[in-house]
Write a structure and sequence with these properties.
This protein is mainly alpha-helical and 181 residues long. 49% of the residues lie in helices and 0% in strands. The chain has a domain of 107 residues. The protein is flat. The mean pLDDT is 77. This is Interferon-induced transmembrane protein.
Length: 181
């Protein structure tokens, strides 16, 4: 591609055949605007604001200082509660074990809520309530898994009893392949 400095360059506004309607225009009249000078930011005219001194007692203690004094929060069964919620919801929403998922889902949600309150209580300085909430979340997660096991056993037992009952309900049943003949 040619540029205005090349000898083969022609102005795109003037046709190449120099038609008579363009005779009044000289090629030197096609001027390009000069390049814009670069932007220079003016210096900052004001002095910076002076630092403000806040009283030290206005801020609560940082979590790092609380952890260094109290130690880490007690362990909870948050992951186990989440697992019980997922498995309970799966059994509740599936067509083969809907009754088996109600108790684990409810107990898992309660255990998860208890586990979430432990850190808040621990940072507030209520160590006894935080420890009690952690123990409660562990017990609720354990009971969620126990109720899931009981629900699965009861569901399997109900399916077996249903199959046995339907097999023995009509003694004059048609054997497979005979179609009542």
């Amino acid at each position: 591609m040619s540029s205005p400095g090349d000898p083969q360059w022609s102005d795109p506004t003037v046709p190449a055949n120099n038609a008579p309607e363009w005779a009044a225009y000289d090629q030197t009249q096609a001027a390009y605007p000069p390049a814009q000078p670069p932007y220079v930011q003016p210096p900052y005219a004001h002095a910076p604001y002076p630092p403000v001194a806040y009283p030290a007692a206005a801020y609560p203690p940082s979590p790092q200082s609380v952890f260094s004094v109290q130690g880490p929060a007690p362990a909870t069964a948050q992951a186990s509660s989440i697992g019980a919620i997922v498995v309970g919801a799966t059994f509740l929403l599936s067509c083969f074990g809907s009754v088996a998922g109600i108790a684990p889902l409810i107990l898992g949600i309660l255990g998860f809520n208890k586990a979430n309150s432990v850190n808040r209580l621990w940072l507030a300085g209520d160590q006894a309530a935080a420890t009690a909430a952690a123990d409660s979340s562990k017990k609720l997660a354990l009971w969620a898994w126990i109720s899931l096991g009981i629900g699965i056993v009861l569901t399997v037992l109900a399916v077996v009893l249903l199959v046995v009952w339907t097999y023995n309900v009509e003694p004059n049943r048609v054997t497979p392949g005979t179609y009542g003949t």
